[in-house]
Amino acid sequence: MSDGLAALAVQVRADLAKTAHPGMPWLTPMTAPDGSRALDVLIVGAGQSGLATAFGLQRSQVTNILVLDKADEDCEGPWLTYARMPTLRSPKDYTGPDLDLPSLTYQAWHEAKFGMESWRDLGLIPREYWAAYLSWYRKVLGLPVRNGCEVTDIAPEANGLLRATVSTAHSEEVLYARKIVLATGQEGMGDWSIPEPMRHLPTSRCVTCAAPIDFTALRGKRVAVIGAGASAFDNAGMALEAGAGAVHLLCRRAAIQLVQPYRWLTFRGFLRHFSELDDSWRWRFMRAVLELREGFPQATYDRCARHATFHLHEGAPVEGARETLDGVLLRTPRGEIAVDFVICATGVTMDFAGRPELKRCADNIARWADCYTPPAQEQSPRLGAFPYLSDDYAFCERAVGRTPWISGIHLFAIASTMSFGPSGSSINAMTTAVPKLVHGLTRDLFRADIDRHWAAFQAYDVPQAVIRRAPAAAEGSA
Question: Is the peptide bond before 22 cis (omega within 30 degrees of 0)?
Fold first, then answer.
């Protein structure tokens, strides 16, 4: 660690010590059926949202926690895997995992590592720097993370506990927890989608934008990217820079979207209080935001447009696809396009049943379509498939009483968006979203222990002072 980062680590720990009030432990350990100590909170996912949630819990004196991630250390989240943009798109001064602790901000880390002039001259944050910052964040806070662990099943257990089956490369184990947070990012409630006309194509010809792609193998090839959001342009840019012979970006809309709605809604009122609006307002806003999808900045477009081999096709949804002797023929309203390889950057579909950890309850997780009927002009089956969450990010039941234990599972991922707006997976919302999640978790833990708290209060008898009284005068004395 550099001298600057070492000094910053000292500063972080000093700041945490100064802001630790109240510091009294307040949770009573619970014994699991196997005799072990049950976790108070198990967090699934050690990306930025999972780490920030762990930090928020620790600051609330919830320290009996564990964070699991199926990826290797430092490969959590998208930053060093399927994120293919040179820099983050958020402005550099957006705060996030720091939860408003100045010494824990990305800016503090960057200045300590590279100097104040480097921060001053920085435009946007390189994604490799962000990944390095998160790695430092995890270490400097001493967050309890285990890598190479995948949660494959969640089930109810006695005394309100949840039982999580965890698979590793060599074994399987069971963990017990009072609460489970799914901080599982983009694919937390489903999986990356391939549009129906292309689902029959083999993976040698068609993959999602989250798949491992050997872009060097695309040199001289004809590539189609399906989608027109920022990720679509990122993948097109990678193919172009690798020397693809032609890259066709197919946008289903008549005109590509240039407005980024997330820039408008990044203000405290919206981020903090959107989830408190009634269903009609939440639906109206999120339908507008999610139907627009995520826009892209100028640099993202220019990365592709500077190549003569880049071709943008607007009003060109894929209506059919068939393999040929030398590739794939895509049929669109604007004609057929022959390519060698297809990358689908069309987002994530909600498929609760496709998540192994939710197989016991997937059919009883309430969706927005179960809880709210929008006006006819605002109908959207895609948005209706999002999970309908309670005010603490917990799952709700479709049929009340069938799976009451799912109220102990809290979703903090991209699928939380319909209920909470930008929250899980969003840097711009983290300083408001994580405290809201932590508040819900600690509220439930406190309420569940209220009898024990009452008994402890009644038994509390520690005096704060000693009263020295003069001896009583002897009886009968003058």
Answer: yes
Number of H helices, E strands in the chain: 15, 17
Q: Which helix (H) or strand (E) holds 151?
A: strand 150-156
The secondary structure of 289-319 as a DSSP string is HHHH-----HHHHHHHHTSTTEEEESS----
pTM (2 decimals)?
0.94
The four Cα atoms 436, 442, 448, 453 give a dihedral, to 10 degrees, of -140
What radius of gyration, in Å, describes the C-alpha atoms of the chain? Answer: 26
Residues, the chain: 478
Average the pLDDT over 90-114 and give the result: 96
Query: What does the alpha-carbon distance between residue 266 and residue 260 come to, in Å, rounded to a whole number?
Result: 11
The answer to whether 51 and 44 are in contact (CB under 8 A) is: no
pLDDT of residue 475: 58
380 burial type by CB count under 10 A (0-12 exposed, 13-18 middle, 19+ buried): middle
Torsion of CA 188, 88, 233, 237, to 10 degrees: -120
CB 420 within 8 A of CB 432: no
- Structural tokens at position 444: 């439930």
Rounded Cα distance, 166 and 168, in Å: 7
Which of the 8 DSSP states describes residue 416?
G
Quote the mean pLDDT of the chain. Answer: 95
* Helices 48-59 & 127-140 angle (0-180, nearest 10): 30
**Dihedral of the alpha carbons of 387, 392, 397, 402, in degrees to the nearest 10:** 140
Residue-wise pLDDT tens digits, 19-69: 999 999 999 999 999 999 999 999 999 999 999 999 999 999 999 999 999
Segment 323-342, tens digit of pLDDT: 999 999 999 999 999 999 99
The amino acid at 406? I
CA distance 333 to 419: 36
Residues sharing a CB contact under 8 Å with residue 449, sequence separation 6 or more, in sequence order: 27, 28
Instruction: Output the CA–CA distances (angstroms, integers) from residue 223 to 11, 305, 336, in the order listed.
Output: 50, 15, 14
Give residue-wise pLDDT tens across range 224-266: 999 999 999 999 999 999 999 999 999 999 988 888 888 889 8
